[in-house]
Amino acid sequence: MATFKSTTKTAQDAAAAKAGSYISDARHISGRLRFAQAVLTVPAGTAAADILKLIDLPAGASIIPALSCVVVANAAGAGTLSIGTAADTDAICAGLDVSTTGKKELGSLVPSVLLTERTTIQAVLAGAGLTEDAVVYFNFAYAIGE
To answer: Is the dihedral of CA 88, 91, 95, 97 positive or negative?
Structure first.
């Protein structure tokens, strides 16, 4: 029978050899879970490649896409959104369909996104523009150190 290690366990084992530390970066495995919500009422005239600035999150935040979601309160048009930062526009989610109402999962297979400084989370529109006055709730779960 084989034994396999997660990337976290591998980092812990490597760090354990250094000065008694058991983890290389605690932000990936511990901290207080917090939630942030940005509410967007779509302005008139949105088009492909438009940037929607959503919310600032603090330095040290580790966004957890598997616990985050977007809720489309009323049909927002035929566009899709990529959610991330200015440096990595789809770090949190790519190609999120907002054409129908309901809860949209951001992806359980996306790793956590660690912010090293206060960062604006944004969405970039692809495809057609969004419907004016559509309401979209962006819900972000993130861990932050004690």
So the answer is: negative
DSSP 90-136: TSSEEEEE-SS-EEEE--TTSPPEE-SS-EEEEEEEESSPBPTT-EE
Q: Produce one character per residue of 79-106: b if its CB has 16 or more CB atoms within 10 Å, e if not.
A: bbbbbbbeeeebbbbbebebeeeeebeb
pTM equals 0.81
Tokens representing 122 are 């944004």
Q: Return the domain boundaries, the chain.
A: 1-30, 31-144
Q: Which amino acid is at 145?
A: G
Q: Give per-residue pLDDT as tens, 94-146.
A: 999 988 899 999 987 778 889 999 999 999 998 877 888 889 999 999 998 76
> 31-144 sits in which CATH class?
mainly beta
